[in-house]
Amino acid sequence: MSQKISVRIDGQLCTAEAGQTIYQVAQAAGRHIPALCHMEGLSSAGSCRLCLVQVEGLGRLLPACTTPARDGMAVTTQSETLAHNRRMALELLFSERNHICAVCVSNGHCELQALACELGVTSVRFPYNYPRLPVDASHPRFVLDHNRCVLCTRCVRVCDEIEGAHVWDIAGRGIASMLVCELDRPWGEAESCTGCGKCVQVCPTGALVEKGRAVEEMTKRRGPVLHLAERKEARP
Amino acid sequence: MSRIRDLSTFNAVRTAGLAKLLPARPRIAVGMGTCGAGNGAEGVFNALADAIHARGLDVSLVRTGCFGFCAEEPLVNVWIPGMPLVILHRVRAEQTGQILDGLAAHVVPETLALCKIESWDHLTGQISYGHGFPSIPNWNEISFFQGQVKVVMRDCGLINPDDVEEYIAVGGYQALYKVLIDGMPELAIEQIKASRLRGRGGAGFSTGAKLEFLHKARGERKFLICNADEGDPGAYMNRNEIEGDPHALLEGMTIGGYLTGATQGIIYVRAEYPLAVQRLNAALATARDYGLLGKDILGRGFDFDIQLVEGAGAFVCGEETALIASLEGRAGRPRPRPPFPAERGLWGCPTDINNVETWFNIAPIIARGPAWFTEMGSNKSAGTKVISLVGKVRNTGLVEFPLGTPLAKYIYDAGGGPMPGHVVKAVQTGGPSGGCIPREMLDTPVDYETLGKLGAIMGSGGMVVMDDDNCMVDVARYFIAFTRSESCGKCTPCRVGLDKALRTLTRITRGEGREEDLAALDELGRMIQATSLCGLGQSAPNSMLTALRHFRDEFEDHIRAHRCHAGVCQDLALSPCENTCPLHMNIPRFLELYREGRLAEAFDSVIMDNPLPASTGRVCQHPCDSRCRRKGTDEAVNMREVHRVIADAVLLGDAFEESVARILARKLPATGKKIAVVGAGPTGLTAAFYLALLGHAVTVLEQRPEPGGMLRYALPEYRLPKAVLDREVEIIRRLGVGFTFDTSVGKTTTLNDLEAAYDAVFLSIGTWKESHVYVPGTELSGVWPALTFLEDVACDKPLDLGSHVVVIGGGNAAIDCARTVVRKGAAATVVYRRERKDMPAIVEEVAEAEQEGVQFRFLASPHRITGEHGTVKAIEVLKTRLGEFDASGRRRPIDTDEVRVVPCSAVILAVGEDVDRDFYAGSGLTIKESGILEADRYTLETSRHNFYAGGDLIAGASNVSNAMSYGKNAARNIDERLTGEKRFDSIMPSFAYDQTVPAPPSTARRHHATPAPAATRAQTFEEVMPALIPEEACEEAARCLRCDIREPIHAAQN
Question: Which of A14, A43, B507, B930 has its CA 20 to 30 A from that of B561?
């Protein structure tokens, strides 16, 4: 029923459905585009700027996760410029807060770390900001560690869109932006939180984690979230 | 008041409005925009109202918006029936009586009159006021308004913004009526497209195309939004437009509504603009009452209403998707486009967002047609743009020129040029997202394309002018700090990248910058531009990147030399005077030591900072005066004179020997290194002094038979007695410096010889060659280059000057020549091609020359010298007129055809000096394209190993203290290179002295030495200017406000 379009991704001709984003088309074609804030099953924020791609004929780079593919579009997802920008974005994220892998509960299971490895970020040229940030361990089962937060807003979106609770949001602006629980109260005192833990499962870093787990066990389970998203989508 | 349902009621309202605008009695309108109110217009209005009431006058008194000349507020318009409208400026409440007094007699107070308007084209209608007042200039004859075309501001300052009838009287709402009657929205959209009107908010997208998108978009509800969330620092055109003419906005939007099928308009206005909000609310209410808004507009069956929403002042809400988020009650954060608002905007409905000014242009385009509009402006940018011109110009305000008008016209014509004594350095356009354009590029036309190419943007129309008091590093830091704090924080590059940029820039302004910072900032800035989500991030690095591109020197000065020449970055300077002094003398220290009666220590402080203190105490250009904070109270501290008193007291007094002994005691042990200094001018002597103190064996090679260079051979005895110079040189000799005279490098000795014999060579040759002027007749006898003339006088050579000598030039050399001529018994006339204020010579010297009888002829340039029997007889000069401002910030003199003959017996050419570059040939030294020797700005190293150069040789002709600063720097760098250690500061003395700010400060006025009477002093070569007496000097020193003392604010904050 939906219209078919053809898109060229890194030279490879792909057939896609109208309405799909560049990211989805690339993924279907087996082309990997680095991304951090984007997650299948959630709406796209387009904020981490890692999935920026070059569309032929356009001067400006576009986020693959929010830009709809159009018929005849030619997209470059890998280039030296794009890799440079992506590496720099990661360096900025690392140095913004206190990302020290060696002492992080998510060491080895962290998407930020994995992206750094993938893109060859071996050192950070910017001096770390080392802000003094709190850790909210008031919830009986989970911990929010602002030191590891990259403000991707996956937790905000999953809670709002899938769970329907909207416990999380971003307060403040600019470099002072902070993830807040309800109207900035300790997580353990939140009235709207169902304790479902979806936010923990979608968090790419060690910012939202389960208590009582060792570093080795700190894997995240994305399956249920994706499944719920698919079922929600299928509902009339 | 009646609801307008048809043409007859419309015309009736119009007639009623005209009767208010041009009543049968005098009408006084007070400019009551925010700018007027801030300057006291409220008081003026009340005073007028009271006086009119008290006197029982039959006068109509109304409030209007701002006419644009904000610097001259409060502006008051006075109209007497049959006469032109007269605009009075800077009116004070107590002057209102004066205004009312003349009304009956049909006179206005001319001292208050700024300009008059005889008739006014409101574009939608014409108003004829009347003729008269011949002595008052027309509005477009005064420089601020000259060339301005008021399209957007067509009604501002002339009509009462709270009275819709006045707006209709000048043709308002006719364009709306027209489109409603025509009933062909597509055709009207075509007209707007054809007008090439582009979005005035900054992005510059075609307005017609946007309207067409919305017209074609499918949707039950469509929205029109006016973005009145003007948030750029220094930009306030939208505020004044709304305050002055709110109905123009409503009409534009209502037309837009009809053309696109939108039924709802929203004005998103800054809550910080209370007056604009108030006037808009009033305008909305009256428009609804008159049937101009709401149901069945103008009886034509069209429904459209406008709602006012006050924004909370977030800069990012200028971004349309963030603005929509804010309207929907969410945090003002943008989202990626596509989808564009025309597709999915407010509440998911098709939406068109335009700036205030864009909407203001709609009605005139409908009324006058697209061809009229495209006649104004440049090829791709049609129409006009209101610019808020602020910063370091004499006239600030709102100026509306056709697009494509060069920047120089804004700054020098409308703006009236820089503040006195300053030069324009750069212009920042487009607010915090814009870029800095350097002075050299002021011929740039202001339009979307050109500014974009330069890395600046048009933006919403802010234009901030910066002068030599502005530090470009600090400017970049300021704007990045602004955008950093206004960043919504959604995307990584803008949130974190701007924070990193700010940290780096702050470090640089504190003198903690590193060489690699500049490349890192450039890379980071480009990344933020390329990858940020919305316009805020994409344009935020513009100001930093353009400053880096055009003012890289300033960044390097901060990083490599730890200097901020503008004196803004406080961590890099001891005090404003120290920062301005080329030698960076610790001026507050010697003033305080002298004030405390510690002469010997004051002398040590002075001479260790400046090895020629008595000479510079007489002839220095004293830039320190220009930045002295005492100028804020009365006059600058006379630092040069105190410095001279200290130097004279020791050098010419009994304490000479013991002072020499103290200096010798500071000398470091011999290093065994041999250094040659080429040239015994101030640069070379300074280098020799410090190098000898650092323990090196120094030999100075000099072409002439005695040391001192220009000080000895170019400065006349009456300014600098050579006995003073001799004492200074004596100290340098005692330090062990050897002098070899009558030696010319390139002739009697070669650079290779020097390289073989010395560990390092410092080249400090002066500018002894007179710049050539191409004037016929220079071959005649009786024509002298200035330096030759001065040297001949210094060497007592016999000269035949005749009775009248013409000196060409305006620098110190020209004045020295003229005053010398007078002392030789001839009359002197200085011919200079610019005006007196443009002369580079020291102001006091010019005044003294004049007292001594030197004549001046300004705005004249030499045409040819005529002679008889091979001898000068006369000089023909061309009258010049001043044209455009050139790169030096002065008006360029342009020759006219008017020739004047000045009979004379001799001509001295003092038009600038140059280095005799003969010795460059085969020297292995790299010469720059400009013909100047290449040397590192900071280390003074040339392209040849162990060869350093400084002074005029690399900087061009300059002045004594500048030249000496090169010698000081060279000594520091040569020593560091030869010994591998930073030893320079170890030879410097330190003193314990009072560190409290004088409270209260001394009330004494500046002390000036009084020169001998002109008549007697002009007869001899005796020194003209006596020193201050010690008591005066001590009082003068006590006038210092001690800017060097920092209150412990820093400590408390950290």
Answer: B930
